[in-house]
Design goal:
By secondary structure, this protein is of the alpha/beta class. The protein has a single domain, classed as 3-Layer(aba) Sandwich (Stationary-phase Survival Protein Sure Homolog, Chain: A), CATH 3.40.1210.10. Helices cover 26% and strands 25% of the residues. It has a nine-stranded mixed β-sheet, sandwiched between helices. The longest helix has 16 residues, at 138-153. It starts with a strand and ends in a 6-residue tail after the last helix. The mean pLDDT is 93.
Length: 257
């Protein structure tokens, strides 16, 4: 299978190298096109006001795989790879992110957005992330993903789509199983830390998550905390369909009076 690999952590991130290595060992034809530097939390941004540049590079452990470092966003990387770098993939894989893409964090995630960009250009796409902000057990996550990829591909037999896969940060033998789940609402400290720097106030994001999961919670956050691999289908359509009927009743009319 021809697979385009990208991410938002950058071309030299451990996750993308381990992912490419695991998929290469399975015999897939790869093109790696990833940001030149870390572009985490850029969401679905595109570079519009300057040109992009693609620098050919060599991946650690995979010198024979064609790879490009691109000075743009994850979504830029997908569009440039398919549009200009002479590669027509059967699948786009974004990751492996070295932090989870759980819940409403998906809105901010460049890893998720690169996969959704694949869906928007009619390519099957999967975003992959590993729990915790470390690279520990990344090789286990990559090997697991490469092994289960044929099963994941069955999802696309039912039509276009995109999957988000979150993998626990532990040895593979300790994964408790696989669950499908919707997104949790993630909560963070709203207030920034303030410091005086060069005569003005500098605002720093406070680390840490405030999200709490009930025992009966069935969202992706809770299931991953319980040790499961979690799979969530996502799409770019953010229409609030439950309230569309209300909007129609309130505002639709003929004419402008």
């Amino acid at each position: 299978m021809k697979i385009l690999i990208t991410n938002d952590d950058g071309i030299n991130a451990v996750g993308i190298i381990e992912l490419a290595h695991a998929l290469f060992k399975k015999g897939h034809e790869l093109l790696v096109a990833a940001p030149e530097e870390n572009m985490s939390c850029v969401s679905h941004g595109l570079t519009l006001r300057r040109p992009l540049h693609a620098r050919k590079t060599a991946l650690k452990k995979l010198p024979s795989v064609r790879a490009y470092a691109i000075d743009g966003t994850p979504s830029d990387c997908v569009r440039l790879a398919v549009g200009n770098l002479d590669f027509d993939p059967d699948l786009i894989v974004s990751g492996i992110n070295d932090a989870p893409n759980l819940g409403s964090d998906a809105v901010y995630s460049g890893t998720i957005s690169a996969a959704i960009e694949g869906l928007m250009i009619d390519k099957p796409a999967i975003a992959v992330a590993k729990d915790t902000f470390t690279t520990e057990h990344m090789d286990d996550a990559a090997a697991y993903f490469a092994d289960v990829l044929p099963d994941l591909m069955r999802f696309f037999d039912f039509g276009p789509g995109m999957l988000s896969v979150n993998i626990p940060s532990t040895v593979r033998e300790e994964y408790r199983g696989v669950r499908a789940a919707g997104l949790a609402l993630q909560k963070y400290e709203l207030r920034f830390d303030e410091r005086m720097e060069d005569g003005r106030i500098a605002y720093y994001v406070r680390p840490g998550k405030l999200t709490e999961c009930r025992e009966d919670d069935d969202t992706d956050e809770k299931l991953m905390r319980d040790g499961y691999v979690v799979i969530t289908p996502l799409t770019y359509d953010i229409t609030d369909k439950a309230k569309l009927g209300t909007v129609k009743k309130l505002f639709e009319r003929d004419g402008i009076g």
